[in-house]
Amino acid sequence: MIDKFFSPETYTLIGTWAVDFCKNAFVAAIVYFIGSWVIKWGIRLITKMLEKSKVDKSLYTFLTSIVRVVSWFLLIIVIVGIFGIETSSFIALFASAGMAIGMALSGTLQNFAGGVMILLFKPFKVGDFIEAQGYAGVVKEIQIFNTIIRTGDAQIIIIPNGGLATGTMKNSTAEKYRRVDLEFQFAYGANLEEVKQAIADVIAANPLVLKGPATDSDIVAAPWMGLSKLGDSGVVITTRSWCKVSDYWSVYFGLNETVYQTLKDKGFMFPFNRMDVNILNK
Question: Starting at the edge strand that comes first in sequence, how are the strands of the sheet with 177-187 ordered?
Fold first, then answer.
């Protein structure tokens, strides 16, 4: 029985298998070393490209991790195929698992995609004041799945990136300068030119207001003023002046207070709503 098992034909088959295995192992080793070098070189190249594009560090770390995992999986599939093992079942299993995970985490993946879009295209950055999803505040942190903002009353709001990336968002600090629009109402009968001159003097005296067009912006203009409407109780004068974004609220409140005090001292009357009631005696 033993002699039949170790017959010349058996030795030939074993020898053929061993030779084929050694050849495949040699080819697989070469593919492994070349593939691992290509993966490392590719990861290093992608990292440098993302660093030069000033992409958020958390994003390019996450992306390079995904590329590394997928690349090693493909390399293993190629090496397994070299030994003659059927790989279609592995690929089908991997695709099925990916589809199942994607369906189960559809909302999370949407937030992830939104985070990638935000970190790549940067519609806003940390420190910007934004209004989105019914909230307004300063961006404190941009994560892969969520963005954290702090409201004016020091509340922390966590907004999912999915809706933030696809919805309407207002960024009040994206530009270097911002326009301050104010309205002042005065009683009918007031000297319009004197009122406008008094307001113009207040605006000119504010050191934070830009007095003319900015050389580094094509939207900044000199202060403007005009009569915008005839109200029920008085005339309304609208002013438009420009300042740096960081000075917006100082200019806004400062001009309001100074204009009120200055024109009050000059004797101009500020109108208020009133109702005339006539009583008829029968």
Answer: 177-187, 234-244, 224-230
